[in-house]
Model the fold of this input.
Amino acid sequence: YTRNGQDLDLIITNHGIQDENSMEEEPGTNLEIKCIQGIDHEMIPETEGWHAGGYGIGSIDTEIVFLKENGQEVVYKSGASPEELQQRKRVEIPFTIETSIVDATREALTGKTFYIKTPIWYNENGDARNGLKFIPVTIEEVTPGNVVYPVRLKFSVGSPYDDTAYIYMSVGDSSRSTRNFAALFSLTDPHLRYPAITEETWERIIHGKVAPYMTREECRLSLGAPSTIDRRAAISSLQELWMYENGVYLIFDDGLLQSFRR
Done:
């Protein structure tokens, strides 16, 4: 499996590739693709290594052979013939990340400053934590993420917030992803798009807080879109009840927040 005639490097993110003794490799292991070979299982002895069990007599399978940093070979059985693989635009290896993706992201983002749009941050161990949004952050490090989000970004936050955290990001052409670059970052200060919002209110939005008489737009920026909206006519106003999945609710009269529960 090569791209443009060049070998690819992969990183195991979960137990999914086995060596010739069928021992599972540890997540984070660096692998380099060594070769791909078509195997006629009718010719493979079933005494050691990979064998024909479950593939049918005479069927053709393709083994993708990786080379670990220590020189040990690791084999992935693709379940397809060489001809079938050649017809595919892409051959995905389960539980792995192409290091070329991580390298390209590292080259593009490291050292640059963007405005983060999500308050869902992570610590070094991968545990979710509460963060801030719409503030400038500087990308310090790009490393392999996980099988769902292949890139992990370490970023720093300057004064007055002074923090360091991580975020996981998807890459490629998945425009619908909620964790791609466009969904996570802005190139410009989002506050510039809302000049009518005061600095005091914007600071609440940064911290995901609300206060009486904030507008619906300000509350949406602070807490995100509600799961349900219930509109009803009051005696002299139009009332809206916003409900969130975490139990938070907001009550608006004529578009201004009157009461809420956090």
About this structure: DSSP finds five helices and 19 strands in the chain.
